[in-house]
Amino acid sequence: MRELKHRRWGSVLLQSACALLVCLPAFTLPSHAADSVEVQLQTREAAPRSVEGPTERAILRDYRFAWISLTRAFQSNRLDLLEGPFSGEARRWLTDTVREQQGSGLSRRYGPQTHKLEAVFYAPEGDLMELHDTAQYHVEFLDAGKVIGNRDVVRHFVVLMTPGADRWVIRQLQAVSQF
Amino acid sequence: MPRPYILCALLWFAATSVAQEIGVPRNVTAGEDVHLSVSGSGTATLYLFGPGLSNKRDVILGRDIQLPATDFTTAGEYSALLCSAGDCRGADFFVSAAKPFSLTFLVHPSRVPVAEGDAISGVAVPFDKYRNLVLEPETIKFELTDGKASVLNRSLPTKNGIAWFRTASGKSAGALQVDAAIGDISTRRAVQQVASDPCNLRITGQRNAGGILVQTEPVHDCSGNPLPDGTIVTFTATSSGDKSTVDAPIKQDVARAQIIARGPTTVSAASGVVTGNELRIGDR
Fold this sequence. Notes:
- The complex is a heterodimer.
- Chain A is of the alpha+beta class.
- Chain A has helices spanning 2-27, 29-35, 53-76, 88-104, and strands spanning 37-42, 106-110, 113-122, 129-143, 146-163, 168-176.
- By secondary structure, chain B is mainly β.
- Chain B has 3 domains: 3-96, Immunoglobulin-like; 102-194, Macroglobulin (MG2) domain (Immunoglobulin-like, Sandwich), CATH 2.60.40.1930; 198-281, Sandwich (Immunoglobulin-like).
- Mean pLDDT of chain B is 91; it is low at 8-17.
- The A-B interface holds A 48, 88-89, 92-94, 96-97, 100-101, 103-104, 106, 108, 120-121, 123-125, 127-128, 130, 132, 141, 143, 148-149, 151, 155, 158, 160, 172, 174-177, 179 and B 47, 49-56, 74-77, 79, 81, 83, 88, 90, 92, 94, 96-97, 106, 108-109, 121, 123, 125, 131-133, 135, 159-162, 164, 166.
């Protein structure tokens, strides 16, 4: 009898653990989605300077980090997340966006993203790079936490990046209808 | 309720509850008013999401909405959502950059030796008055003048919003003016051109009471520019297997050094990567 009870409890525990494992991703979806940013970089067409290996790795790392920061900033309406990876005009409009969202109770939530980056210009002295990003993602618009609209989109961005003290920063991030 | 009444009620409901629709402009230029056409009846909430913009407002359906130009100064993608009775309809549109207003101009290096190939480069990027990158092709005129002569005068179209050049430095030491212009908008940078390596470094010398006094002839680069004061000339004296070296700065085009040496002595001079003639001076 006691053995039967033990088995029953074991079964309940096992089922609970499985249910927890199944449910866990649903609770952690927002932060997981923010981190789910895949970036591919093509540098063959970059001119007049060819992109060096370490620079290519830095661009991949810093561009991905910038989108993770943007995603989190737009979702949680936090300005501090924009301080490192963005500069100049890009930082100006991203900051304005978050401030407006803070004031209106709106936010945006991005799903997993894929960014196909192509370097189209790399300055002779290596101090400016222009990239074209074809991004694919799901975005939701929220009012007071309630989804009011969503889109599955393929979007094109023209990006200007410059080297900072310890990373490449995005100075211009401009969505265009086509390249 | 008899069936005809039910049918009438349904038809009346369908006729009066037309779902709201939203029409957005196809192309908008930064800094222009935006007109949205909305259909339906009653009231709704209009949400606008875009670069630097996230707001909502109540609107009356069936009336066109005029949105202020100040909301659309940043180029990029905007989403308009119209929500009424729990139903939201949306449409997206793009705002493109206005005409060029300013020119960002990066020039390298800030200091360059004269007559050096592909030594100077410049990158020009036009922006509109709202700091949007102008992606429509524009022609940028690059002009490099070194006071006496034009070093470069070239008009280049922007590609993906950027125009660039690379050229040799001029032949005269001094300030090189580097101008980029797009229409009546221009930006100026300056590059300091300095004399290049010495050309035909020649020395003369003679014995005196203290040893040997050697000096260069006026030191110029191959374009005839005098080398700046302070440029080091290294004199090397070899006498009976002993070698001594003296570094002397150029002062008013000439470098001088007093070398202590006895017996027949060979003196040579070098500055940077350039070596001069050898001078043989016999015993007194």
